[in-house]
C-alpha cells in the first residue's frame, strides 16, 4: 500500500532529519510514530505527501511513485492522502459543513469550489461522516464555536471525505485533555478499521499509542530504532528510543487500562 525506500531529508542547515528510512505500511494497518522531539516524525509524514520535499529516496502509494510526480499530478494524488493536523487547520469563519466539504476541493472544478456549489452526494457524505463522529447537529455552527475535540472530529471528517487510501495524522491529541485524547484515538482507529484505511499517526504519548495501534515505529535521530507491536515496547526499548527514564510506570499504566481499550488495537 504505502512504501518508503531509502528516504532521506537533509535541510539547508546540514541537519539530516531522515536517514535512509525504509518502511512498508499495508492496507488497513494503523501504526504510531514515536520518538523524542527532533527524531524526524513530522518530517517523515510531510515527506510522504511532499509538503516537505525529500532530499532522496522514493515514496510509493500503491504503484504510484509520489516522489517523481509533477506538481499537477501530485495535487491529484494528494486526494488519496488524508491529512489530520495537530492544530486542526480549520477555517474559523466557515461552518462545520463548509470545513468538511473543503476536503472535496481536489475533486470539483475551480468555479464550483469558489462558489461552494458541491454535488448533492458530497453533502450527503458530509452529513453521514458528521453523524458518525457525533456532530451532525453542529453542521451549521462556525468552526470558532467548537471545542478542541469537536474541531479535531471535523478535521477527521474533512480528511475522510477525500475518500483517501491512507491517513497521515500529525499529533492529533497534543492539544487535547486525556479523556478527549482517548476518544479521538479510538475514533481514528475505528474509522480506519471500518474503511480498511492505512494510517500513520505521529504521537508523543507513548501510553496512548500502546493502547490503540497495531504497530509502533520508534524513531531516533532520523533512523528507525524499533518496529514492532505495542506490547514489545519494553523499558529497554524505550530507553533506546528516548534515553534513560523510569519506563515501568508507563508500561504499568497501559496494563492497568488495557481492558477498557483493547478492542481499538485489534
TrEMBL record:
Pfam families: ABC_tran (PF00005). PROSITE patterns: ABC_TRANSPORTER_1, ABC_TRANSPORTER_2. The keyword Nucleotide-binding applies. Keywords: ATP-binding, Cell inner membrane, Cell membrane, Membrane, Nucleotide-binding, Translocase, Transport. Residues 2-246 form the ABC transporter domain. GO terms for molecular function: ATP binding. NCBIfam families: ABC_phnC. The keyword Cell membrane applies. This is Phosphonate ABC transporter ATP-binding protein.
Amino acid at each position: 500500500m504505502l512504501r518508503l525506500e531509502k528516504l532521506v531529508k537533509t535541510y539547508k542547515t546540514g541537519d539530516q532529519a531522515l536517514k535512509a528510512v525504509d518502511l512498508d505500511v499495508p492496507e488497513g494497518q494503523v501504526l504510531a510514530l514515536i520518538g523524542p522531539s527532533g527524531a524526524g516524525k513530522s518530517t517523515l509524514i510531510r515527506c510522504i505527501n511532499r509538503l516537505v520535499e525529500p532530499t532522496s529516496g522514493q515514496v510509493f502509494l500503491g504503484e504510484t511513485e509520489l516522489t517523481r510526480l509533477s506538481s499537477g499530478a501530485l495535487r491529484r494524488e494528494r486526494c488519496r492522502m488524508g491529512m489530520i493536523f495537530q492544530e486542526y487547520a480549520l477555517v474559523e469563519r466557515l461552518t462545520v459543513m463548509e470545513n468538511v466539504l473543503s476536503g472535496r476541493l481536489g475533486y470539483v472544478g475551480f468555479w464550483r469550489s469558489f462558489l461552494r456549489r458541491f454535488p448533492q452526494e458530497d453533502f450527503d457524505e458530509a452529513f453521514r461522516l458528521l453523524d458518525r463522529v457525533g456532530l451532525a447537529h453542529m453542521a451549521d455552527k462556525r468552526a470558532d464555536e467548537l471545542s478542541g475535540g469537536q474541531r479535531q472530529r471535523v478535521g477527521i471528517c474533512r480528511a475522510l471525505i477525500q475518500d483517501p487510501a491512507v491517513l497521515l495524522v500529525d499529533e492529533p491529541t497534543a492539544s487535547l485533555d486525556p479523556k478527549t485524547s482517548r476518544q479521538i484515538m479510538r475514533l481514528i482507529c475505528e474509522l480506519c478499521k471500518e474503511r480498511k484505511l492505512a494510517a500513520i499517526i505521529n504521537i508523543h504519548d507513548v501510553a496512548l499509542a500502546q493502547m490503540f495501534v497495531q504497530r509502533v515505529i520508534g524513531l531516533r535521530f532520523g533512523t528507525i530504532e524499533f518496529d514492532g507491536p505495542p506490547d514489545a515496547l519494553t523499558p529497554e526499548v524505550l530507553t533506546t528510543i528516548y534515553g534513560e527514564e523510569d519506563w515501568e510506570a508507563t508500561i504499568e499504566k497501559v496494563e492497568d487500562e488495557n481492558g477498557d481499550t483493547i478492542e481499538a488495537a485489534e
